[in-house]
Amino acid sequence: MSDRYLVTGGARLVGEVFVDGAKNSVLKLMAAALLAEGRTVLTNAPQIADVPLMAKVLRGLGAEVEIDGDVVTIDVPAEPDFHADFDAVKQFRASVCVLGPLMARRRRAVVALPGGDAIGSRPLDMHQAGLRALGAQSTIEHGCVVASAETLTGAAIALEFPSVGATENILMAAVLADGVTTIDNAAREPEIIDLCEMLIQMGARIDGVGSPTLTVDGVTDLTPTRHHVVGDRIVAGTWGVAAAMTQGDIRVRGVDPDHLRLVLKKLEDAGADVERFDDGFRVVQEGRPVAVNTATLPYPGYPTDMQPMAIGLATVSEGMSMITENVFEARFRFVEEMVRLGADARTDGHHAVIRGVEKLSSAPVWSSDIRAGVGLVLAGLVADGVTEVHDVEHIDRGYPNFEEQLTALGGRIERVTDAPVD
Ligand code: UD1
């Protein structure tokens, strides 16, 4: 059984929204708390479903976790357990980020592999190769990553692709390794910078933060800290696109506009007026947006997590857009749902070609992941009639207070929970 949204199209979104801390940061920062015995406090944590799930993983490892509004407090014992079992991790992939901290603290880790993912295959080969380079053995056994090491020794590691998760796991293992580790072709997403900043506050020695080469000089101990989670650029960018699609006017607060340079530039190319502030931005769209081409790439490229929104915008823009997906191969699956809403779109390998229409037409659609779900809601806002978006629990995983925020901006959305059938 799942919940669905009824989205009534036609409203122009106008007003102000406040964006909380980033999902893709807070989960890693929670895992990083394992690196130090004692109490770590995270503020500006988003109230999304994945935070309690991560709390469950950490509790399974012996930590005490308390969530009070936007504050997450994690008390880590002197010797955390090293086995994150399937029950704790099965619901979401980000749990894999306990691998690095467990190797750092315990020199052992057994982390069950999460299930399949709707956006494409998500192997862990680079995570494992990185740990091996630091001197660990790492295999997959009975559905778990099993890693162990006598000692972890700094090494020169070059990633084949700037993987966010591999960079984070290697970084968190390296901060307590003996000697110096370099990670070349490291991911440099703002969430990685946020993690580096917290690790440095804890006493880690990291150079090159924000660059493609991280140099980590291992230390013997880290101390717990208090850290403010960086604002969620993907949620912020979603509202920016929502303004452009609905020909609205939205002021977004709680995010560094520099983290959305390309996203905001693309909105300007589509005809929006974008104003940037220290704590956010404002997007005003007068008239129909015009088509723009977009290709996803690791940061500072256009985020793959914004690709469904870029497609949504293209479906109602004037002209033909080409959207190219370079990070997750299966992310275009949701385009079929957009076609159900009347989008003139077709995909070929990495590319989607979309000829914009004036208006979409309402239909029942299914969300397959967080971002696809939100992309479909945005499409429902520019469709005539009432669009039913099914499986909206995905959206709960990444967008705090989504219906409330959308309603406050003038959007018409209602959540329906079906009664169980006997
Ligand atoms: C993180 C984000 C996700 C975002 C993605 C890319 C979290 C919880 N999730 O996912 O929202 O879309 O970054 O910005 O932070 N790959 C390998 N081998 C590996 C690791 C990755 O081949 O060992 C491939 C993946 O299949 C994918 C690409 O590298 O094609 C990028 O993945 P990665 O950057 O690792 O994404 P995640 O950390 O899983």
TrEMBL record:
Pathway(s) it belongs to: Cell wall biogenesis; peptidoglycan biosynthesis
Record: active site: 117
Pfam families from the UniProt entry: EPSP_synthase
Binding site for UDP-N-acetyl-alpha-D-glucosamine: 93, 305, 327
Domain Enolpyruvate transferase span(s) in chain numbering: 7-406
GO molecular function, one term: UDP-N-acetylglucosamine 1-carboxyvinyltransferase activity
Annotated GO biological process: cell division; cell wall organization; peptidoglycan biosynthetic process; regulation of cell shape; UDP-N-acetylgalactosamine biosynthetic process
Binding-site residues, phosphoenolpyruvate: 23-24
Subcellular location: Cytoplasm
Domain of life: Bacteria
Catalysis performed (reactions): phosphoenolpyruvate + UDP-N-acetyl-alpha-D-glucosamine = UDP-N-acetyl-3-O-(1-carboxyvinyl)-alpha-D-glucosamine + phosphate
Main localisation: cytoplasm
EC numbers on record: 2.5.1.7
SUPFAM superfamilies for the chain: EPT/RTPC-like (SSF55205)
GO CC, one annotated term: cytoplasm
Coiled-coil regions, chain positions: none
Keywords: Cell cycle, Cell division, Cell shape, Cell wall biogenesis/degradation, Cytoplasm, Peptidoglycan synthesis, Transferase
Free-text function comment from the UniProt entry: Cell wall formation. Adds enolpyruvyl to UDP-N-acetylglucosamine.
NCBIfam families linked to this entry: murA, PRK09369.1
HAMAP family cross-referenced by the UniProt entry: MurA (MF_00111)
Family per record: Belongs to the EPSP synthase family. MurA subfamily.
Descriptive protein name: UDP-N-acetylglucosamine 1-carboxyvinyltransferase
Organism name: Gordonia phthalatica
Lineage, broadest ranks: Bacteria, Bacillati, Actinomycetota, Actinomycetes, Mycobacteriales
